[in-house]
Amino acid sequence: MSEVGKHKAIVIGASAGGLSALTALFGDLPANFPLPIMVVQHRYRDQLNLLEEILQNKCKIRIRQVEEKEKILPGTVYIAPPDYHLLVEEDFTFSLSSDPLVSFSRPSIDVLFESAAIAFKRSLVGIVLTGANKDGAAGLLAIKKQGGLTVAQSPAEAEYPYMPQAAVDKGGAMLVLSLEEIKARILNSYSFSNETN
User: Fold this and answer.
1) Nearest to 136 by CA among 111, 116, 114, 109
2) DSSP for residue 174
3) How far apart are CA 123 and CA 10, in angstroms?
4) Alpha helices in 93-178 (DSSP H)
5) C-alpha–C-alpha distance, residues 125 and 147, integer Å
6) Could you give the C-alpha distances from 129 to 2, 100, 121, 172, 178, in angstroms and in order?
7) Residues acting as catalytic residues
8) Cis, bond preceding 36 (omega within 30 deg of 0)
9) Could you tell me the residue ranges of all domains in the chain?
10) Tens digit of pLDDT for each residue in 114-141?
């Protein structure tokens, strides 16, 4: 068993069906939630701030679109802007990239997860939610290899099961949980530490 409270950040990937899943996860988080949460939600490039506005209207925690070189702070949900890859640098700042699509996506879940795994190592929690492609499967495995904790939404209850199922099939998911179970663990984020060594 590893030390309780070892996790310092959460990364989440979602695609089709993601808005309702993210709303369910974030709706009850307090404004003073202790960890930063970084999100890639696949969306069209012309959606601008629509996702952030919808979520903020339903959530107490601060929700914002990432800006280049922004420092990662606790108690904030950071969402990748449309049409840019989001990366975490080793000095715990963000960078944005217009490099080619990865798994047909930009922003790519894999790009965020793989860069965050290098920066946060064992202190990272990675979560793959509903979606209709395989983005996130390689990134979740990268987090697992760095010693972080990895979670896939149960494909049986996901609105679009393909993405969490791809993560499970690739071997990256240490836990497969319902959305309600994931929500409960995020609300009590340190309980993640009790499930892994």
Assistant:
1) 109
2) S
3) 9
4) 109-120, 137-145, 162-170
5) 10
6) 25, 23, 21, 13, 10
7) 15, 42, 135
8) no
9) 9-188
10) 999 999 999 999 999 999 999 999 999 9
